[in-house]
């Protein structure tokens, strides 16, 4: 089987500082793959590069059989790669529904868009209840739901989520993780960046541990969850 996403020896720098130092991994269709690691490991830089927001200095990215290097961000969305960014970046003055519509900015199939907005409301009922309200009135967890719903509006083949549980209460975090599990069970392919290693590894098929720009350990979610060095460094055990 060919991978949906294949990243080979990717390097990304900010000026002279190399933030991603030659990483390789792949994501097969239907899988959840997670990148975990401490602050500054290069996780967000990796996702922003896959989205076309940053240019790699080296390496090869292949998505759905096509090389992505140099492809502009909006074309990458059109190819089926959606990104729910770190910090969410919803539009606070626009309504929830308008935020969702913006996620479909490349689509022209009005009926299909309406159907997918309804799907977002089925996934996150609170968004439907408050569809006409300004998105800035939502709580942090609800804004995360909106960011995920918006990313899904482009009907992605691969959904990238950057720290969806950041800053959320334990209950809200569980709700977000349960939704990711639900999306997975519906067949959505997901690349998940998380600092909450326990939650991410519990639902991931594959995981990679990043440290200062490199992948230092890879395995199934299950293997990494039981790996002694991961437990010490990321799961707060000694
Ligand atoms: N715009 C930028 N200009 C210069 N350096 C940057 C920029 N963005 C990130 N960096 C640096 O690149 C490195 C990787 O950062 P990145 O945001 O990718 O890490 P991360 O793994 O997502 O961390 P976190 O868990 O804190 O979100 C860090 O050393 C960071 O300081
Ligand atoms: Mg980050």
UniProtKB/TrEMBL annotation:
ABC transporter domain location: 5-237
InterPro entries: AAA+_ATPase, ABC_branched_ATPase_LivF/BraG, ABC_transporter-like_ATP-bd, ABC_transporter-like_CS, BCAA_Transport_ATP-bd_LivF, P-loop_NTPase
GO terms, molecular function: ATP binding; ATP hydrolysis activity; branched-chain amino acid transmembrane transporter activity
Gene3D superfamilies in alphabetical order: P-loop containing nucleotide triphosphate hydrolases
Entry keywords, A to Z: Amino-acid transport, ATP-binding, Nucleotide-binding, Transport
GO biological process: L-amino acid transport
Domain of life of the source: Bacteria
Record-stated family: Belongs to the ABC transporter superfamily.
Annotated protein name in UniProt: ABC transporter ATP-binding protein
